[in-house]
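Structural prep section.
Before we set up the soaks we want a predicted structure of the protein with magnesium ion in place, mainly to decide which crystallisation condition to try first. Input record follows.
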Amino acid sequence: MQQLQALRKVEKFKLRKEVPRTMASKKQDREARIEDLPGIGAATAEKLRLAGFDNLMSIAVATPGEIIDAAGITEATARKAIRAARDNLEMGFQSGIDLMKKREGIEKISTGSKNFDTLLAGGVETGAITECFGPYGSGKTQIAHLLAVQTIAKDPEAVAVYIDTENTFRPNRIKQFAEAISVDPEKVLQNIKVARAFNSDHQMLLAEKAEELIKQGLKVKLIVVDSLTAHFRAEFVGRGTLAERQQKLNKHMHTLSKLADMHNLAVYVTNQVMAKPDMFFGDPTEAIGGHIVAHNSTYRIYLRRGKKGTRVAKLVDAPDLADDECIFKITEKGIEDA
Ligand code: GTP
Ligand code: MG
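Run finished without errors. Recording the tokens verbatim:
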């Protein structure tokens, strides 16, 4: 038994030792390459890389199914590789202190409105998914534009990735918002990478491609998906397709959540509402996407029209903030407290 344990230790050590010494950071210094995983030869590693699994972390957080699809290996091999990747990265439990340190690295992106920022304890958080849901014209897209401008205003090197599913990205609005806070509109537009998603599969692919931009060296600090659910809703109609839709949405949100966590960037998604036919009292609408979207969003904000052209934002779900609401106005310059 002891011998076996000793042997395992040696194996693990070997795995770590074969690391190229050129890697920069201390953390990376201990990381093995994917070829070093058990059962993964050069050809399999190449297949994995082509499918986007090009580091141990991406394999450690993948499901066996994803690895099997990408590399065409057996389930046993996939499981072994995932386990080895996890062991190598020392995943699992972290101490409270480690987590506290991680949280210290979290940044907030301002919305430009004092009330809105107060609602979110400073703004939209990096490392998390923030979802705004509400009826048409409630301001979800306007906030997406604003966040993109604010991200770059805060850090001129920052890049905002904007996945536009409804063709509602307007460079002119970006220009107006940037000018209102005296930031060079051209610089801001330069640092926003917009992609139009034509269907749900395309949308999912674009979220995965965002990682490529990061690998190219772009400092992506915000990913917008506007709208998160519209394509899914339009493509999967009828009861029989609901399970598949939810599964795909779940996968998509996992991709976004991983990106947020691994690269300390903010994800902002928008979501529509639908009428609840069986609701006679209280709010007759509910967000699309059900529990899958609700559970995968870290912060959820319900937007609606208020009196005299105002908008009401209500924080309905947040891990560490009280449920509260604020009133704001959409203007030429951005959003203002009302
Ligand atoms: P859907 O995508 O249709 O679900 O709506 P949404 O929630 O994304 O709405 P959006 O953010 O596009 O808000 C549209 C509203 O913003 C409009 O009805 C206007 O009231 C307001 N708005 C848009 N552009 C301007 C502008 O240039 N000036 C002012 N004052 N308001 C604007
Ligand atoms: Mg919109």
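Observations: The pocket of guanosine-5'-triphosphate (ligand 1) is lined by residues 134, 136-142, 272, 330-332 (CB under 6 Å).
Flagged for discussion at group meeting.
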